[in-house]
Amino acid sequence: MSKKRPTEAPGNGPTPKETSSGRSQSGLRAFNERQILSLIRRQGALAKAEIATQTGLSAQAITVIINQLESEKLLLKGKPQRGRVGQPSVPYSLNPEGAFAYGLKVGRRSFDLTLEDFTGKVRGALHAPCDYPTVDEMLSFLRRGVEFLKGSIDEECAERIRGIGVATPFELWKWAQEMGAPEATLEQWNDFDFEKEMSALTDYPVYVCNDDTAACVAELIFGNPGNYDDFLYIFIGSFIGGGVVMNHTPILGSRANAGALGSLPVPVRQPDGTTAIQQLIKGASITTLEKMLIAAGKDASILWNSIEHWGDLGPPLEKWLEQLGEQLAYAAVCGVALIDAQAVIIDGSLPGAVREQIVARIREKVNKADLRGLSPFEVIEGTIGSRAQSIGSASLPLLVNFFSTDNRLEFKNRI
User: Fold this and answer.
1) 225-383: which CATH topology?
2) Is the pTM of this model over 0.85?
């Protein structure tokens, strides 16, 4: 679906909080520090010599930076590991309690609030279902949730909470009919100022991005076991969307529309044998399956009440899987042709067994496609699952404040 570009925040945005050592977060934006934190995040643990080899920095510079990051509690020193020759090496890893962040997911059927540590582990989470999202319900949920989740960590850790990431469908108000919601109610989101309203409740910086972009960020930072530098990410939720990663960096685009897969036009076979063109969102979303189940006289509530197991949904599920596999295979080949992706990663708010079937069908159809002129690519399952959008939203403050990116990646403070 369309991704509205965040508007410019006034001035330079919120003033960063200070770390326990007294340094401001802006000091952590130095390229070398970000590069080292990013390397350790990706590889789990590294000794100083390994970091020097991979960064090209001198041993002395590495020692100064590592010591500083350790003093700020961002890194943990491991036990010495003795090799065959020379001095034992000491691995350094991210300190889970080095930084924390909240993540708020504004969904079409629910709100989720997550408190995440520096390694991506969820320390606490709250979920509130709704028929459709309203501004008042969201603010009430946030007010209660921030204080409740803060109680799940000690006081010293609470001082290291770096912000609130918000994952939301952009232009939410344009999809009232598909959501079965009153247009006037959803129209409230049109002029809603996340920074202003949320700062009235908390004193944290706020970072906003599209919900599926957030899910893509979660896969990049805390998933991606194949360590792909370039991939197309597809998230199957109430509506379908996605994200683009190039050179190990999420790409937003100048108007924040990169990865707007829901708007991708795809060919669809009609009952009379002809072919029509429609947006991917029409046929490859869970709301499409919901409508198919209702038309067949089946209870569709299981789709939203039990993400882990949908049970036997019969012919409607089979029909949905078939059209999903066909349309996503088309989207996958188009995506690879455009960005030369090494992989297409499929995830969503659905049971693992269903996701496995979807990936199998996409692979089958991709293998039958004419791929001349394209480099080989993988179609694989995502690793984060149904909570990817929520975890991804909490990852935004951590990504912006601590980890390196290869372009000017910014999540503005307002939609």
Assistant:
1) Nucleotidyltransferase; domain 5 (3.30.420)
2) no
Contact 97, 117 (CB under 8 A): yes
Amino acid identity of 106? V
Burial of residue 389 (CB within 10 Å: 0-12, 13-18, 19+) is buried
Q: Rounded distance, CA 13 to CA 100, Å?
A: 20
Q: Residue 94 pairs with which residues in a beta bridge?
A: 75
Q: Judging by beta carbons within 10 Å of its beta carbon (0-12, 13-18, 19+), is residue 143 exposed, middle or buried? A: middle
Task: Lay out the sheet containing 46-47: strands in order across.
Answer: 46-47, 91-94, 75-77
Q: Do domains 25-94 and 100-216+390-402 have the same CATH topology?
A: no
Q: Which residues touch 277 (CB under 8 Å, ≥6 apart)?
A: 265, 266, 267, 268
Please choose, from the candidates 354, 350, 357, 359, the residue with its C-alpha nearest in 3D space to the C-alpha of residue 328: 359
What span, in angstroms and rounded, lies between the C-alpha atoms of 236 and 346?
A: 8
- Tell which residue, 384, 320, 393, 307, has the closest CA to residue 347: 384
47 to each of 20, 82, 114, 120, 403, how far by Cα in Å? 25, 12, 32, 22, 18
What letter does residue 8 receive in the DSSP assignment? P
DSSP code at position 28: G
**DSSP string across 161-216:** EEEEEEEE-TTGGGGHHHHT--HHHHGGGTT--HHHHHHTT--S-EEEEEHHHHHH
Considering the four listed CATH numbers 3.20.20.370, 3.40.50.10240, 3.30.420.40, 3.30.160.20, the one that applies to the domain covering 100-216+390-402 is: 3.30.420.40
CA distance 328 to 335: 10
What residues are paired with 379 via a beta bridge?
344
Task: Collapse the DSSP code of 129 into the 3-class scheme (helix H, G, I; strand E, B; otherwise coil) and give the result.
Answer: strand
Matching residue, tokens 């036990």? 79
Per-residue confidence in pLDDT tens, the chain, 415 aa: 444 333 332 222 333 344 444 344 444 347 889 989 989 988 889 999 999 999 898 999 999 999 999 999 999 999 888 765 656 789 999 999 999 999 999 988 889 999 999 998 999 999 888 888 889 999 999 999 999 999 999 999 999 999 999 998 877 777 666 677 788 888 888 888 888 888 788 889 999 888 899 999 899 988 888 989 999 999 999 889 999 999 888 888 887 778 889 999 999 888 888 889 999 998 999 999 999 999 999 999 888 877 788 988 999 999 999 999 999 999 999 999 999 999 999 999 999 999 999 999 999 999 999 999 999 999 999 999 988 998 999 998 998 889 865 443 444 433 3
Class of domain 25-94: mainly alpha
